[in-house]
Amino acid sequence: MTLGYSLFATRWLQAPLYFGLVAAQGVYVYKFFRELWTLIVRSVTGQANETYVMLAVLKLVDVVMIANLLIMVIVGGYETFVSRIGLQGHRDQPEWLSHVNSNVLKVKLATAIVGISSVHLLQMFVDVHHTSHHSLLWGTVIHMAFIASAAILAYMSGPMATHGERQHKGHAPAPTPRQEPGAEQVRERGPGHAYAAGAGAGGESTGRVADGMTGSSVPAEFAFAAKTVPVARVPLPLTGPSAAQVATQVTAPIPVQTVSSPYEAHESHAAQDAHDAHDPSEPGVEARIRDARFPARKLLEEFDEEYPRVLDRGAVARLGGLDFVSARRNVVFVGPPGTGKTHLAVGLGVRACQSGHQVLFATAAQWAARLAGARSAGRLSEELADLDARPLLIVDEVGYTPLDPDTAHLFFQLVAHRYERSSLIVTTDRPLSRWEEVFGGAAPAMVDRLAHHAEIVRLEGDSYRTRRVTAAWTE
Q1: pLDDT for 327-346, tens place per residue?
Q2: What is the 3-state secondary structure (H, E, C) of 10-53?
Q3: Burial of 359 (0-12, 13-18, 19+ CB in 10 A)
Q4: pTM to 2 decimals?
Q5: DSSP helix/strand/coil, 468
Q6: For residue 174, how far is the Cα from the chain centroid?
Q7: Is the Cβ–Cβ distance between 334 and 431 less than 8 Å?
Q8: Distance between CA 24 and CA 115 in Å, rounded?
Q9: CB neighbour list of residue 186: distance below 8 Å, 6 or more residues apart
Q10: What dihedral do alpha carbons 171, 325, 348, 227 form, nearest 10°?
Q11: In Å, what is the CA distance from 310 to each residue of 14, 166, 301, 307, 461?
Q12: What is the C-alpha to C-alpha distance for residues 376 and 370, in angstroms, rounded to an integer?
């Protein structure tokens, strides 16, 4: 361990190199102003013709582009290979720094080099009367070589490579569907399994019956069941004074499910996905929304923005553009129960599905069960890798239930594995500074990775559900 930390500490040997590039940046600043001063003097004295002015301006542009290249190498390289700079929340933080990594940095450098080469080639064409045909020919060939190399690098390092990996995973053979078990293998779930979904701005469901969605109230990936018997839908009350009154109004049969392992449920769901993918009558958006296992379909447009006392509405509108998904950033909604955290999380998830992204929703307790089951089966690494195929995961209700150290470590592995790879949306009832109350010693490292590239949205206000119940009682 000591040797490993020592080797890791050698990254600081690169720090002087970046400070040396800062000095080179200063040289280019001096060169820029010297060229600018010469241009001004010649223009004022009438010694500059149009061609000279164009060439001088192109030289200035060339200097600026090289300086931009240096900035990306200095800041991005230091952030990627030496140490985090810690600009989170700074109003002047550059857009590209929020999702920089070695691959992104290489692509940006390649495109910057192409831009610089374009300026050089333009200079040659502007001054074509003083440029030899040999120089023009080789300048063009070298510029095309830069373009080709940048395109190849972007293909190898960018979204195309990720898409190819997902396509490869998607062509894995689907498991053979299992036969329906006999009647002796089924059992009836008790009324304690009936859940009512929250409504309105709160949208945070303490239970999990999806309005307008099929299947069990618990996602197949997280339940010990592989098949469900079709059940007539019964509207559950959206509000009520107590859970007991809600339970007494459920008159339809409770879904009957088989007793099976969580991995049989996952395989059955994967087989259904394979069938849907080849069914031309199944709309792609609806398939992704169903596959995401949302507790209810809630849209951002349905959110009552006027209800929370504290809400950064500009941040919510910005997140609705889904740039955070392509940038592999995270979103954390923090606030007391009933203020709309789950509604916003589901709304973003539905919009991501509509934009072509694969999403998976589950509560913290359900994620804990899934990861614990994968670890018991000796396939935790494979499970985390499979989840990477989904650009967005939603972890709901973090902090509602304390976790033992082993489960907290599983959550840390989930966050660490997706760090700078894919996005997470987390809803929690307590600020990140208090996550030690839930995750114990794993909290600091988990929060460090989760919040590094994250938009943290705070909500404050009374419970939307409690308000609706109170209004119902007073009528």
Answers
A1: 999 999 999 888 899 999 99
A2: HHHHHHHHHHHHHHHHHHHHHHHHHHHHHHHHHHHHCCCCHHHH
A3: buried
A4: 0.44
A5: helix
A6: 27
A7: yes
A8: 20
A9: 229, 256, 257, 258, 259
A10: 20
A11: 44, 39, 18, 9, 7
A12: 10
